[in-house]
Amino acid sequence: MELLPEGKNFRLAQEDELPEILEFLSNYLPDSLKFHQTLKTFLNDRVWDFFFYISKSWPDDPVILHFPGMTSTPNGRLYESFSVFCPKEKLESLHLLEAEDILIDWTQPLFLNFTRVDIMKRLENFYSSIGTMEKVCGDVYICSELPLDITLDELPAEEVKMQELQTENAEAIHELYPANDMESIEVFKRLIVALPAYGIFSSGDLAAWMVQSYYGAMFSMQTRPEYRRKGYGIHLAHILTNTVRSRGYIPFVVIRPENDASQSLYLKLGFKKHYQTVRAILRPYEESSTHD
């Protein structure tokens, strides 16, 4: 699908506009954190060709859309997967998104990436006459400063080592990644090359891994089942938190509310819960009945 320079209410942000947009988003931290860090990572590291659209009445109507471009959606359309940011005090400007019918085809399934819960509630009210939302909640935990008194136990065995990941590790990472149907192996290869990426290896085998994501956050950590409960996770999270901060990013993670183990781990590293986000699959009613 060709890249559209504009839709009904939005236009493609030009390269020379992006630093100013980043500065605008910084005025709304931490609420804008995921969007802010996504744009910052794009400007600094260019992991992938992202596309950012701003309202044609920007900044009076400060609505910005991000189309990641590399998410593997069922129909393979560029505009099928997106996220949106709008300041809390300007949620009425979301009517521009609701009326957008060129970039976004509301009659087809859509994939809305983790978006602040108040924005999602507004969109849910709008979408209720069109179809259903299959939602997953995630709480945003942010680390403003690592605790000075944190001490970690040594890795449990001599044959267990932490190393930077290499591109040849991408296939093993992709295999374990929960949403590997939505992300290609190529995404992980690019992340490993462009951004900090660490793994814990046991006798040469990759036991656990974690990388900085293309949206600035520390990516979801994964440990192979046979290596769990060995304390590998906090070692990975600790080194990546330090590395992300040293590169000028704000470390944050998105944790499911029911994931007590991850909450406990990140709280030990000084992370604090700030707000809730929601990821959703939007299905028109006709599509929903077919899918069921």
TrEMBL record:
GO MF terms, alphabetically ordered: acyltransferase activity, transferring groups other than amino-acyl groups
Residue span, N-acetyltransferase domain: 160-292
Source organism superkingdom: Eukaryota
A Pfam short name: FR47
Protein name: N-acetyltransferase domain-containing protein
Source species of the chain: Clastoptera arizonana
